[in-house]
Amino acid sequence: MRDVAVVGFAQAPAVRQTHGTTNGVEMLVPVFHEVLGNLGLSKSDIEFWCSGSSDYIAGRAFSFIAAVDAIGAFPPINESHVEADAAWAFYEAWVKIQTGEVDTALVYGFGKSSAGKLRRVMTMQLDPYTVTPLWPDSVSVAGLQARAGLDQGRWTEQQMAEVAVRSRADAKSNPLAQLKGDYTVDDLLGTPYLADPLRKHDCAPITDGAAAIVLAAGDRARELSDRPAWVTGIAHRVDSANLGGRDLTTSASTVGAARDAGFDKVDVAELHAPFTHQELLLRQELGLNGTRINPSGGVLCGNPMFAAGLIRIGEAARQVSTGQADRALAHATSGPALQHNLVCLMEGRD
């Protein structure tokens, strides 16, 4: 296995709405400029490009090809794409470097959620024969999961509100966060339900945004970063698409991915939890008591679809590269009710 590390990370501000096109070009150009400029690299120095996005969010076929305009498709580039969160593009790029074909890769993800009705668009990821025709929206599906956990005593509405309070307070130190500020649990619990038992603060906001990460192998990583965030393990697993075929209050795929990635104790964890109860679930499943969770504020303070999981990797890597953590865990999720989960472990080496 080759040593591979995150050496660069940049993201666009998480905002409720942008005025650009749905192919992400307007958001991506400044992100590429920042991440490459910080490393002293040009586009020609990148040997492999891999993106994550969704044509359903963009509302057009092959929108990821239009996004290549942000790179410049001529001279020809070595490029790939996943119709998923860019955390899975990160996995593909990591595998590409492991093959020895390339030493550097740039991974990017983008999503303009404001272009449509996100709650309904996300219904398209459900079972197309028995569930999608009923049009249960994504917040309502998450509400079923939250209710199951409440009924089993796995979490309480107060604990859910505490997650939102902490997340928005932590986001005050993140200049790119969409939501931030000081709130109290009582204030949040006094607001009306959005999809019982979920209130507005329990749900990640609708966000437009993009992000990019640069990966490098071995000595090349050491040249580009004073303290690379070395990837010590990465794995992803998926649970049944049948919502009634799995226990929604647990996450076997997260536990399996963490085990296969070689999870042990970490200093900080960036969890991709679009709903407050999902953070509580992930913390319980991974045994993260006492671990710093989402110092960036997490997706509850900014949730650019198809980039949010990649941002968790970037934020965790930032903790390592700045010396604020020696070992970090990044988690990404896709699908309804934490169906598909990826775990990436990173460490700093002095």
Quick recap of the structure?
The chain has 350 residues and is α/β, with parallel strands linked by helices. It is built from 12 helices and 12 strands. It folds into 2 domains: 4-118 and 206-227, Peroxisomal Thiolase, Chain A, domain 1, CATH 3.40.47.10; 133-203 and 230-348, 3-Layer(aba) Sandwich (Peroxisomal Thiolase, Chain A, domain 1), CATH 3.40.47.10.
Low-confidence runs of at least 5 consecutive residues: none
CATH architecture of the largest domain: 3-Layer(aba) Sandwich
Main sheet makeup: 10 strands, mixed
- Count of helical stretches: 12
| CATH fold assignment of the largest domain | Peroxisomal Thiolase, Chain A, domain 1
CATH homologous superfamily label of the largest domain = Thiolase/Chalcone synthase
The quaternary structure here is single chain
What is the radius of gyration? 19 Å
- CATH class (first level) name of the largest domain: Alpha Beta
Provide the spatial order of strands within the biggest beta sheet.
Answer: 3-2-4-7-1-8-12-11-9-10
